[in-house]
């Protein structure tokens, strides 16, 4: 897919300085630019690279002044960094602008879908599924019975959506994510074995949610596991049965959330955090990476450690922990005296 400098300037409302017909088909860092690539200069500490870059087109700020001869075609814009981000978003939209139903694929009875559907090869759509407009469902994806999907959703290759799941508008699911698998529910028996407790609830995912690769969201035992609007989940996260995550909370990779815990709005949770079950995490909470959460947390707290406690106290305590060998030696010396 090729774009000319003139076309790019039109998208960004910019001004071409150089060859308006210069063509690019790939993106690059300015220091790694090559023929046919598009790059940008936003940080002044990289300014020296614009005189040596082999990139065909470079996006720069309006106030950029060349101090030496340059060979790259310039596109002057108000904000080079923001414009480059806009261009990435535009490129991604064009790249994902697929439509039609590829074969082989399986669409069961009583399925309805809106215009603009893309259904990749080897997909399975179960009975009584409803899919909104402009859905992009990539190959090898499974959608179970009675699933409801809103508009403008993307399911990358290999996503699994179990039956009864409800998904809002503008949601993205990356490869390998599994939505609606059974919650981890087993009752111990007298003979030391376990009896599986049926998991008959579902998963509800509201608008503007993104779910990373290989993340799993379990269905509820009864009722619903709920992911509220604007939540962003990284890769390799485990969300257990009956968990609720409120609006605009972001969670980094390898975090595990045990059953029936409620997490508030606008929380930021680092990687490899473990959260026990049946807790309440307040709004605006920040949990540092690798923290172990064993009790409920109030609004706007910042915690770290395992078991986690106030971040300021943790930082002070850690200073003493690092000095513990010296402190022990000093105590031994005092005891000898």
UniProtKB/TrEMBL annotation:
The active site is at residue 241. The keyword Translocase does not apply. Keywords: Acyltransferase, Lipid A biosynthesis, Lipid biosynthesis, Lipid metabolism, Repeat, Transferase. It is an enzyme of class 2 (transferase). This is UDP-3-O-acylglucosamine N-acyltransferase. It comes from Flavobacterium ponti. Belongs to the transferase hexapeptide repeat family. LpxD subfamily. Pfam families: Hexapep, Hexapep_2, LpxD. Catalyzes the N-acylation of UDP-3-O-acylglucosamine using 3-hydroxyacyl-ACP as the acyl donor. Is involved in the biosynthesis of lipid A, a phosphorylated glycolipid that anchors the lipopolysaccharide to the outer membrane of the cell. It catalyses: a UDP-3-O-[(3R)-3-hydroxyacyl]-alpha-D-glucosamine + a (3R)-hydroxyacyl-[ACP] = a UDP-2-N,3-O-bis[(3R)-3-hydroxyacyl]-alpha-D-glucosamine + holo-[ACP] + H(+). HAMAP family: LpxD. Transmembrane segments: none annotated. Pathway: Bacterial outer membrane biogenesis; LPS lipid A biosynthesis.
